[in-house]
Amino acid sequence: MAAPSQVLAPRTTGRFRPPRFGLGGSHLGDPGADPGDETRDEIAVATIDAAYQAGIRFFDTSPAYGESERRLGTALKRRPRGEFLVSTKVVGDDPEDSVRASSERLGLAVDLVFAQDDAAYPVLDRLRRDGVIKALGAVSDDWRELDRLVRDVELDCVLLTAQYELLDQSAKPLLDRCVARGVSAVVSGVLTPQVLHMETVQARRLSAVCERYGVSLPQAALAFPSRHSAVTSVLIAASSPAEIRADAALVRQPVPERLWKDPELLRLLS
């Protein structure tokens, strides 16, 4: 079976296509921790290495994630630059300075930059036209805000950090608009506590249906978002090599198509 990031999503979006699975860097930075903590550095770098070895070629980070950018750069500088994609976020009032500082911390050029502030997009558009970055995106946990931006801004990509996973598909209108506009969608936060610990009645019922097909609930949760043709990528957060290896193993296990057609599953998802 192909490595996780090399399984292609349906070719319906147009401009920019991140790999199918990526490593989210929010757990790699330890905000507030001592930057000189070598043990934390080693664990983070080993986690990134494990993700790479598992076939992941998309790595998302942010200046807000503590030491995440520096650690990501340390791990990836040993890899051929043409093999992977790096995204980060704008932090602060000067988007160009934010991108430059991120690139310096990474020791790498940044491919994709996400922003939340409307004022950042003209600056990022210029950086995109100048070839400083390859793509620009918007990030939010509010699908309605992203929907507005997809309508009003020439985006390549959106990063939705909530509202599209097994137990909550409220962002579907956004994804439908992304298809219409040729904008790629990246989804994170799909392995919620409700999915991992089956904290709700709905989660337990979904798990029971999945088990009849030999599928675990986390496995189904990782597979579900990409069933929408707008979703090109799913980000998986991990804080240890064992965690990312376990998630990559779930990705590699096929989910039978007949599961998604099960009447009980469809009723629970609706």
Helix and strand arrangement:
Layout: E1 21-24, H1 38-53, E2 58-60, H2 68-76, E3 85-89, H3 95-106, E4 112-115, H4 120-129, E5 135-140, H5 143-152, E6 157-160, H6 172-181, E7 184-187, H7 193-197, H8 201-211, H9 217-223, E8 231-237, H10 241-252, H11 257-260, H12 263-269
Parallel strand pairs: 1-2, 1-8, 2-3, 3-4, 4-5, 5-6, 6-7, 7-8
Helix pairs in contact: 1-2, 1-10, 5-6, 8-12
Please describe the structure with a list of short key phrases separated by commas or semicolons:
270 residues; alpha/beta; 8-stranded parallel barrel; 8 strands; 42% helix; globular; disordered N terminus
Task: Explain what the structure shows.
The chain is an alpha/beta fold. Helix content is 42%, strand content 14%. The chain has 12 helices and 8 strands. An 8-stranded parallel β-barrel has the order 1-2-3-4-5-6-7-8, surrounded by 4 helices. Strand 6, helix 6 and strand 7 form a beta-alpha-beta unit. The relative contact order is 0.15. The N terminus is likely disordered.
